[in-house]
Predict the 3D structure of the following.
Amino acid sequence: MKAIQLAAPGGLEHIQLVELPSPAAPAAGEIQVRIHASSLNYHDLLVASQPNATADARILMADGAGTITAIGAGVHEFAVGDAVVSTFFPQWLSGRHVPSDFAMVPGDGVDGFARESVTMPATAFTNAPKGWSHAEAATLTTAGLTAWRALVVDGNLQAGQTVLVLGTGGVSIFALQMAKSMGARVIATTSSHIKAEKLRALGADVVINYKDTPEWGNAVLAATAGRGADIVVEVGGPDTLAQSIRAGAVGAHIALIGVLTGFAGTIPTVELMRKQQTLKGLIVGSREHQQDMVRALELFDWKPVIDSRYPLDHLAAAFAHQAAGQHFGKVCLEF
């Protein structure tokens, strides 16, 4: 089978297309999946581009979607031919004992889904939403489930609330679409007038250009008659967190997800305390969260926004496109 490996010490120039033996037949409790699609996340880009971020010859990519080709003994949840999508934390099935590192995350601590076939425990997958393509389903493992957990699991989103999303990456677009489907008002930020029109077309009620309005937290307050956003999907990190706190309502939930602007910074703790906001970090979600999300998505009338599609052997070019920051929605692999 074809696969993409990353040779030490890493970097996009060390991404290699290789031929590997096909995986073994599934043992008891396992399934074999023909992988047809993956999608790129900032986490994947960091693994691929940062020096020595993962082991030599690591098969990249955390997201994988495809069709079951064989089933081991004792597997009753799936059947051959089912469309499935991988989970980010294969060992985190449910509950509050959350992983705090990436040791078992595909494409990082263990081999991922940039390959044509895998044999893994059945619990490392869930059903894909009915009627979705493999590329659409592949966007759920990381970006989709992160948005779902930020809004629903941790944020307890209610109809009529206001959600603030930052930028136009995969998590933010998912959060916009989900929030609108659940009856929320959405405020979005971008630095592009072209992307602003696309955000409005997806249902964003207010769009703020953060280059034209550097104090965009105040603009969010102005757009909500001084109340602020009930949930903030904070994907930026240290350089945007202060504005997100300013933009949040009293009692707001701020889902701290991203490191797009760095790994450390200052926090205006007095304002956070005064507003009695909740600032909670999260890394994707559990298998149970994903199953709940898939059931919900089958009731909605939209599909993920896919910016562009690349074949497996063009993964380095796909990463370069992602790194340029001009994409709107998800960048996917199809193979």
